[in-house]
What we know:
With 152 residues, the chain is an alpha/beta fold. The chain has 6 helices and 6 strands, in the order E-H-E-H-E-H-E-H-E-H-E-H. The chain has helices at residues 16-27, 41-51, 67-77, 92-100, 112-124, 144-149, and strands spanning 7-12, 32-38, 55-59, 82-87, 105-108, 131-133. Strand 1, helix 1 (16-27) and strand 2 (32-38) form a beta-alpha-beta unit. The longest helix is centred in the last third of the chain and has 13 residues, at 112-124. The protein is globular.
Amino acid sequence: MKEIEPIRVIVADSHTRMRRTICCLITLEADIRVVAEAETTQEVFRKVQELSPQVLVIDMELCAADGIGVIRRLKEEDELVRILALSLNDEQEYVREVLRSGVDGYLLKDDAPDLASEAVRCLARGKNGSFFRVSSDWAILPWRKRWAKRPL
């Protein structure tokens, strides 16, 4: 029987406790492997280039003032990497702007411990895999392009 390769993930967050929590939780899953951790944007770019992960889980606050620019650059450098943005920010206009930058998923940090593994799997499914969870008032939204354009 052919063994299925685990989903390769990089977790990037400047807060060590949050980064390690996410890593510990998603590596409990047999089908997900954290191949690296990063705590700066420079590390993110270097490790994505070196390791070619399927999914990058990145804290938008890690990117300081230009998180959207960082996401765009990551997508330009490696269009195959699927990006799950983590944030504390659930303001609709901010979320829309992040979605327009090219992320494949958006998850509030408060929900990350419970939903990170599911989100990584959704993103790893490929072109149509998306995952968006913004608040309990908003649904998990399957199609980023349609949602990013629709009025709220």
